[in-house]
Amino acid sequence: MNGGPVGELALTGGEPVLGSLAPVDWPRTTDADRAAVLSVLDSNVLVSDRTAEQTAVERLEGSWARYLGVRRCVGVSNGTTAIELALLAHGVGPGDEVVVPALTFVATAMAVVHVGATPVYADVDPVTFTMTAQSLAAEITERTKAVIPVHLHGLSADMGALMEVARRHGCVVIEDAAQAQGARYLGVPSGAYGNTATFSLQMTKNLPTCGEGGLVVTDDERVADRIVQLRQFGETIRADRPRRYVSHRVGFNAKLNNVQAAYTSSQLERFDAYHAARRSNVAAFLSRLGHLEGLTCPSEPDGYEHAWHILRFVVDFDGLFPGVDTATARGVLMRALRAEGLPATRYQMMPLPEQPALRSLCRQTPASWPVAQQVIDRSFTLQQRHLAPDAGPLLQSFADVMEKVWAHLKVLEELADGAGR
Ligand SMILES: *Cc1c(COP(=O)(O)O)cnc(C)c1O
């Protein structure tokens, strides 16, 4: 049902543009995905340590390494474990500092804490939302052992500049590409630029599995071999002999299973088509929003290919609603959007170091991440609904919603004024 841009806001009793909040329709499971999963079940080769013949995990590892153009890929239990094992394989541990962005999912820093190292937070860029070379350089000390740039929302960090800073200081670069399957930086796929990179296959990500999973990629054979050991109790597993149950290091049980690998391999067959469809759907959506006052749409800088995992819209609340506090203005705007059927959300309620679990471990003050705080305060996000290849019409409805809501900014200002007083 399309109320058109002139009808009354659903928030104040008008007809909503969409009948209800658009549901999540991701991941898309096809008959091919079902057949892939069933064939693993029928084979009874369910976990990754059976090596008599090539397993589904090995097949996925091979295809993803080829897709990125890297030497090695190791399947692990999830994207958080992927970061932990990458850190351990690079020798990061107690006494080391690891620089992570102040705006990302909590797992990026938790992985650092899990290996006994200390996360240090670098501020992000106000336009790309990723760590910058300057913010990284500002946080490097003689204890910095590694840097984890996060390609947040599907846009690569400025890898050339970050690698240069890291090289100068002898730090390892581990890309957290959990949100960036399909992204590119100067033609290089995200995950193929740093020393090592990690991906999540969690079902909300661009390349999903039917549950939880992760991948680590690297050109460094020794790092890859260590991760293979670490994911299975520190054992060396070889295809040409039975498992010996000898542990060479203290490892984990962090294996990916064959059902989940087969599902992802099947998804990978359609990945490029989905990526291309998403790019054209999102471009058509954003092209309708350029004229909305005080709104900054997410963008794709020259030389970057965005994977559009999450769409973040920055709003000039001070300009649109002068004198109203930002949280009130944001709340009213998001309620108005949601009432019309656009599921506006926030991505991260606070900068990462201000998470209750992490606060006491941090030696920095909020003066170190002013931009991350501003971005969180002044934006809303759209997640998952746009990931499916046929989400184009839905995104057009979202554009209708935004045009309608923006045509009623005066009403919102009155509501915000009332709420703020
Ligand atoms: C999802 C995500 C992770 C963690 O991946 P899981 O598979 O959920 O453990 C890490 N970093 C970022 C940026 C993510 O979005």
From TrEMBL:
The EC number on file is 2.6.1.-
Cofactor(s), by name: pyridoxal 5'-phosphate
Q: Name one Pfam family in it.
A: DegT_DnrJ_EryC1
Question: Which InterPro entries does the protein's record reference?
Answer: DegT/StrS_aminotransferase (IPR000653), PyrdxlP-dep_Trfase (IPR015424), PyrdxlP-dep_Trfase_major (IPR015421), PyrdxlP-dep_Trfase_small (IPR015422)
Q: Has the keyword Transferase been applied to this entry?
A: yes
Family indicated by similarity: Belongs to the DegT/DnrJ/EryC1 family. L-glutamine:2-deoxy-scyllo-inosose/scyllo-inosose aminotransferase subfamily.
Its protein name is DegT/DnrJ/EryC1/StrS family aminotransferase
Origin organism is Actinacidiphila polyblastidii
